[in-house]
Amino acid sequence: MNLDLRDFETFPAEVAVESEPDNNEYGIEKVSFRDLMSLRLVIQKVQEEYYCQGSVTVPVEEECSRCLSLFDAELKGELNFIIRTGDGKVPSAAGEEEEILYVKPGEPVADLHNLIRESLILALPLKPLCNDDCLGLCPDCGVNLNEETCDCKREEDDERWEGLKNLLE
Fold it and tell me: What is the pLDDT of residues 128-167, one digit of tens each?
């Protein structure tokens, strides 16, 4: 996704763009995009720098880490970056935490692809769950315990811990 700074005459400028994401283009594993990706930015110009803040949201289909069923979710990533004109050889000021994109002085078009991709990857949950009360799979027979119950007998006491139990008595 590209951002052409020539499209804006007054600042601060607000950008709202929806586009069709491609699973292969963004290369995010374990999710598949279901609908349009929405990008919202506020751009402020200070001298020759453009300060951009916003978010990107996209509906996805994920796999639950407990029961392995697919469920719908929404990824929302935050964007905070600066666009500068030049070749990128100017050192950044100490303590700058924003990502800096450099564009050619006569061609102010910034490619936001990598920033969007990184933002969405950081928004991925470590252990996606279909719901907080997900029971997962039975460790013995593999049935999804959210959908049905099983007759597997689970031993409450593991005989390997008997030595420690005797010490406590």
Answer: 999 999 999 999 899 999 999 988 887 677 778 888 888 8
The CA-CA-CA angle for residues 54, 55, 57, to 5°, reads 160
pLDDT digits (tens, 9 = 90+) for 74-118: 999 999 999 888 765 555 554 555 688 888 877 888 889 899 999
In angstroms, the CA 115 to CA 55 distance is 11
Q: Is 115 exposed, middle or buried (0-12, 13-18, 19+ CB in 10 A)?
A: buried
Q: In angstroms, how far is CA 101 from the centroid of its own chain?
A: 20
How many CB atoms lie under 10 A from the CB of residue 55?
15
Measured in degrees and rounded to the nearest 5, phi and psi for residue 83 equal -110, 125
Domain that residue 75 falls in? 2-134
Same domain, 130 and 93: yes
Tell me the C-alpha to C-alpha distance, in Å, between residue 12 and each of 15, 41, 50, 79: 10, 10, 10, 16
Preceding peptide of 108 cis, ω within 30°: no
The token pair that represents 113 in the structure block: 């692809």
What total number of domains does the chain contain? Answer: 2
The C-alpha atoms of residue 138 and residue 116 are separated, in whole angstroms, by: 38
